[in-house]
Amino acid sequence: MRIGVCPGSFDPVTNGHVDIFYRASKMFDLLLVAVFHNPNKKPLFTMQERVEMLSLATKDISNIKVDSFSGLLNDYVRRQNSTFIVRGLREFSDFEYEYKRALLIKKIDSEMETVFMMTSNEYSFISSSGIKELAKFGGPITGLVPACLEERIIKRISEEK
Ligand code: ADP
Questions:
Q1: Which ranges of the chain would DSSP assign to H, the alpha helix?
Q2: Are 99 and 87 in contact (CB under 8 A)?
Q3: DSSP notation for 8-48
Q4: What is the residue with the minimal CA distance to atom 8 of ligand 1?
Q5: What is the pLDDT of residues 89-116, one digit of tens each?
Q6: Pocket of ligand 1 contains residue 15 by CB under 6 Å
Q7: Can you tell me which atom of ligand 1 is nearest the CA of 127?
Q8: Is 34 exposed, middle or buried, given 0-12, 13-18 or 19+ CB atoms closer than 10 A?
Q9: Where do the domains of the chain lie?
Q10: Residue 45: which residues within 8 A CB-CB, separation 6 or more?
Q11: Atom 10 (ligand 1): residue with closest C-alpha?
């Protein structure tokens, strides 16, 4: 079985992420969307909330499973019997970071392949941080995040203020 892992913070999941999941799910028998516990970041949504929101956002894609992990990505991917990491790419700034990261990952484990998927035109400007900023100032996030999560995201961000 060919398994792909799509790691990220997903704080919160956006339509840009979901587009990548949908397209990547066609390349693998099973796509694991894995929320990374990053000790350097202070997320808005808890790990459990992000997993729950991702599960709702991907419920119509049958070969996607949502999980979470901490520690080294390579170790997690190996534990899942995979050697494929899927990352989305938006602009040049993403490329620089992702390029270094993919090479580091390969240095540790030469069989590990990072697969890049180019963002779709209509989602290229969407980021989790952009969504949070927009919602904080009452801007519309319709069409930028999964419809089933829109209210929840707005509510949480307004509570933070
Ligand atoms: P991380 O903190 O690991 O960068 P993110 O949740 O910000 O996690 O992003 C996870 C992955 O999704 C990354 O590969 C990122 O480049 C990609 N991504 C984020 N937004 C988009 C988008 N609008 N289109 C395509 N890929 C995206």
A1: 15-25, 47-57, 73-79, 92-108, 128-136, 150-160
A2: no
A3: E--TT--HHHHHHHHHHHTT-SEEEEEEE--TT---SS-HH
A4: 8
A5: 998 888 999 999 999 999 999 999 999 9
A6: no
A7: 20
A8: buried
A9: 3-125
A10: 11, 12, 53, 156
A11: 8
User: Which one has a higher pLDDT value, 91 or 28?
Assistant: 28
Cβ contacts of 79 within 8 Å, gap of 6 or more: none
User: Among candidates 6, 3, 7, which has minimal Cα distance to 29?
Assistant: 3
Look up residue 104 and give its two tokens: 């580091």
80: left (phi over 0), alpha (psi -120 to 50) or beta: alpha
| CATH number of the domain located at residue range(s) 3-125 in this protein | 3.40.50.620
Residue 36 amino acid letter? F
C-alpha of residue 150 to centroid of ligand 1, in Å: 18
